[in-house]
Structures are given as C-alpha cells and as structure tokens.
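Response to reviewer comment R2.3. The reviewers asked that we include at least one raw input/output pair. We reproduce the pair for GNAT family N-acetyltransferase here without editing.
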Amino acid sequence: MNPTEKATSRLKQEPLHYISILEPLRRGTAQLLYAGEDGVQIRLGQTVLQSAVSPQAAERLLNRLPQVPQMFVAHEDYEKELFERLCGGRDAFEPGMCNPCRTAVYTDSEPLPVSETFDIRRLGSAYAEAVAKQYHLFDDLAYIQERIAAGVFYGAFLGGELTGFIGEHSEGAMGMLEVLPKFRRMGVASALEADAVNRNLAAGHTAFCDVILGNEASFALQRTLGLSVAARPHYWLAAPERAEN
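Raw output as returned:
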C-alpha cells in the first residue's frame, strides 16, 4: 500500500469529516507530508491540514514541521489544543483566528437545478476590489485576486448588475459566497451554489464547503440543496505572528 492509500484508508471511514484532506489528495493538488497508521498530514500553500489518531501522534506530526504554519486545520479536538499550546496558548488567538466548522458535502451524482433568473458567469480581475469590499468574513484583497486569477470565482448577474458571488478555496472547498444586500431573499445564494456544485460534478470532483458553527442560514442552505453535513467539527486556526517552532 503506497503512502496516499495509507492516508486515505482511515479517512474514508469518515469521509464527510475528512473531505478537506481526501479531496485535495484525490485531485493531486496537495503535498503529502506524512501518511501512516498514526495519521495524515498535507500541505496546501501556507496551510497544513492534519488528522492524527491520538494526542501523542498529533504532537509527533506537528513537531515534524520545520516551522509553525500560517494556517493549520485540526480535524481532532486535541490537535486544536496542541496547536494553540504551540502558539502560546488559547489567549494568543484573537477573534476570527480560530474558526470551528463543519463540512457539507454533495454526495449525489445528479446535477442540481439552477435558476434561470440569473446570468452566472466567471468573474475577471476587474471585479476583485468589489468582491473584497463586499465579502464579510475576511479582508484579503490579495487572496481574492489570486482566486479570481485561478478562474474559480463566479458571479450572478441580473440585468447586468452583480447580485452575488461564489469562489473556491485552494483546497477545493466552495466558499466566499456572498449576496449583495439589495438582492437577498431572491434565490441568489441557491443559484450560485447549485451552479458551483454542478461545475464540480462536471470536472469529476466532489463538491464540498466549510460552514462556520453558528451560521444557521448557511447550514439551512446546504440541507436545502441536498448536501450532507459532517457530524463533528474541524478547526481552521491562523497562527499568531509571534508563533515559532
């Protein structure tokens, strides 16, 4: 059994929870840092995603890294606690630096119906600043520009006016979904995500997204569209600047 097969055999026992590791491995977009009976660790740019079978194994995997990653995705509670300790304790993390999420995954093979009310098309670089200004979860123009340049940002237009947008993160997760205020409750979000699901299906990918705990509107949208939600959370942790390994 090769390292990737070792990595996926355990994770496939809980595929909804581990999709953010499984799908990049399947797409070949991740660097596999470690795969063994005790855990899996991959890298996507400046982000390390990990799942270890025990606190001891999690600590061994973290200690293998040459430096603290800018972003760490812990799939087990004890991995979150270990990373917080490595970065100076929980108090070192300001609001927004630790986001507990549950994954929603489209497990069907049939495309979703997409409302014909909107003209959904790929966004070019001219929309980067408008997208960054409207998106509410983070302020990172450079990241928005990079994702638009990757060709994975789409907008829904009505009468030539942008009503909302959706993108795709580097790990392949659908995200950065936003509907402009004047167009809310018109079905824009459903149309955008359904279209994104269908594009994933057409490319032979599994469509998935992360939903931050407490975002009940998003959880409702996922279930309405037929996505299955993981039973337990994972954690996106942004390392404090002073953290060192």
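The longest helix spans residues 188-202. The radius of gyration is 18 Å. Further pairs are available on request from the corresponding author.
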